[in-house]
Amino acid sequence: MKNILLAASGLSPQVITEALYALWHQGRPISRLEIITTRTGKERILAGLFSPMDGKLLAFMQEFGIPENDIEFGPHLIHVLKDETGNELDDIITPKDNKILLQTCIDLAYQLTSDPDSAVFFLVAGGRKTMTSCLTLAAQIYGRPQDRIYHVLVTPEFEQCRDFWYPPKISKNIAVRNNNGIEYVINTKYAKIELISIPFISIRKHLDPKMLSHPISPSELSDLAIYDKEPAIILHLSNATISYHNKILHMFPIHMAIYAFFVQQKVKCKNTHTCKYCTDCFLDKEAIFSKEDEIKEIYLKIKQNIDFSIPKNLDEENFLSYRSKINKIISQKFGQANANYLIIDTIGKRLTTRYGIRMDKSYITILK
Fold it and tell me: What is the pLDDT of residues 18-43, one digit of tens each?
């Protein structure tokens, strides 16, 4: 039976050689290595593991007498997360990113566990916590009696050292840093790697046979799992409020009018590709001031229900002041982590600055 290592990896691919080292010493050699990662993770993996000059994976195999052909590996087995248009993800931040990650983990788990003559070792020691959670979930869906979930524990002194990939046969001194960032030298003979087998409950035998004919999709998974709905932002123009993550922000009418104007630009954008990184709807100041009538129209709709005086015409000074106040109250109410997608953001330098909202328009609702 061949052993396949399916690893989640972030910016520290050292966990892969550490796991290979531990598995080899336990008499469980790997015959195939597959990795799930992001674009930045791929760059680290190619530079660290597969470099033709000093790739650590080949160095590990040579040092411990493992024939090169014994482990199938290479760039073609690095699975980089991609959005619907084929763009590689730099990181896993949004709910959409997480869906892509989960589907990738499920697809690979389904594919690799379809071979009865293989055992799949799911390595959940690398990458963001969402990566390890999604890979664990995929193992619970498709895992068989021969499959395992593994985590790697490394002696703390070596855990964050970029120069440590596995304990070499001949120990050597390497530079590490303590918790205060102070560098010192330690010998690799003190490094210990523990491979922890994590017990898990597989639901594979309880799945409808139809679900074993193809990888489960998020819609099918919703019948099996409990998870939060996608966070959405709701603008209530009539009472000048914003609802997000079960929190309600009450705004001054002029603030609401300006914010709603930018949200409307996002909603009305005609692009046909992904909305995630798109800034086609961002406007420069000249374009914003030319659409001032649209902002006043929104304001007057709000003012029908709330008694406030007509604001002054927009100019550069008061627009920047309004934007600053809007962004401040949004950040205070919904938290800085969420604010990155909710505030009136900018792109470009001083003379070419454009303004807009980054949140995906599929998560936006505007109520009159």
Answer: 999 999 999 999 999 999 999 999 99
How long a stretch of residues is the chain? 368
Q: For helices 14-25 and 56-63, what crossing angle results, to 10°?
A: 20
Name every residue whose Cβ is closer than 8 Å to that of residue 235 and which is 6 or more positions away in sequence: 241, 242, 256, 259, 260, 263, 364, 365, 366, 367
State pLDDT tens for residues 246-272.
Answer: 889 999 989 999 999 999 999 988 876
Average pLDDT, rounded, for the chain: 88
Q: Regarding beta strands 241-244 and 32-37, do their DSSP bridges make them parallel or antiparallel, or are they unpaired?
A: unpaired
Q: Which runs of E-coded beta strand occur in 103-179?
A: 118-123, 148-154, 173-177
d(C-alpha 5, C-alpha 77), whole Å: 11
CA angle 320, 322, 324 (to 5 degrees): 70
Would the pLDDT of 210 be above 80? no
DSSP 217: P
Per the structure block, which two tokens stand in for 69?
């052909």
Q: Determine contact, residues 327/339, Cβ cutoff 8 Å.
A: yes
d(CA 125, CA 146): 20
Between CA 345 and CA 351, with CA 347 as vertex, the angle to 5 degrees is 120
Beta strand segments in the chain, E:
2-8, 32-37, 78-80, 118-123, 148-154, 173-177, 183-187, 193-197, 233-236, 241-244, 247-250, 345-347, 354-356, 364-367
pTM for this prediction: 0.64
Instruction: Give exposure, 205-241, as e/b (b: 16+ Cβ within 10 Å).
Output: eeeeeebbeebbeeebbeeeeeeeeeeebebbbeebe
Q: List CB contacts of 14: < 8 A, sequence separation 6 or more.
A: 48, 56, 162, 164, 165
Sign of the CA dihedral with 258 first, then 262, 264, and 268 last: positive
Cross-strand partners of 143: none
DSSP, collapsed to helix, strand or coil, labels residue 354 as strand
